[in-house]
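SEQUENCE-TO-STRUCTURE ENTRY
===========================

Backbone structure tokens: a row of integers, each naming the local backbone shape at its residue.

Task: work out the structure tokens from the sequence, keeping to the layout shown below.
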Amino acid sequence: MRKRRQYWMAMAVTAVVAAGVLAGCGDKEDKGGKVETQTEESAKSQKEESVASGSAAGESAETKEVQEGKDDSQGEEQKADVESGSQDGQQAEAQDEGAGDAVEKNDVFGEFQTKTLDGEDVDQELFGKSDLTMVNIWGTFCGPCIREMPDLGELSREYADKGFQMVGIISDVSKPGDETALEIVESTEADYTHLVIPKDANMQYRILKNAQVVPTTIFLDKDGNQIGDTYPGAKSKKQWTAIIDEMLGKVSNE
């Protein structure tokens, strides 16, 4: 009886131990399952994060490429603007140089049209007839002007074959055929070309701006550019001879 009791007690203990072992194994498998599930979820999450990160990186790279493309485009546009500005600057410079050449040519009187005291039409081409032109600006009211005109007439004839011409400009006469001017020219034998100044403000300014007093004398080359100084006041024939020889030397060396 005792042995049977011990036998059943041993069987009960064995059942309890077996149940505990089974329960422990079940917990381990459940925990393992949970770990595996968590690991799969973690891997999935990391994969999604990686995909998202890759997508973001791709978008960033694409944005960077677009931005770089814009920067390159802007750079090309700026370069084109600079080149265009340079070309504009060169064109402007060329225009300025051309304007400068225009000013240098006929820099005293520029282009003009007027008449001689005898009524003939004349313009700036008058100066091209000789290497050197002596322009004497005088007035019919001016005593010193009239007193030096006989010497100027002689000089005009003496230097006629040396590439020289004399031109008078009458400051106070605007129309051809003025009787007073004609009488002065005839009496002084100043038989060179004399120009009248038309009543044109621009023309008067161009011619008379060089004469603060009368007489005033200047020398021009065949292009109408002034050679040497401006000479206010009357001079003797000897003084003018020395000046004319000097001016002829200058134009022959150009």
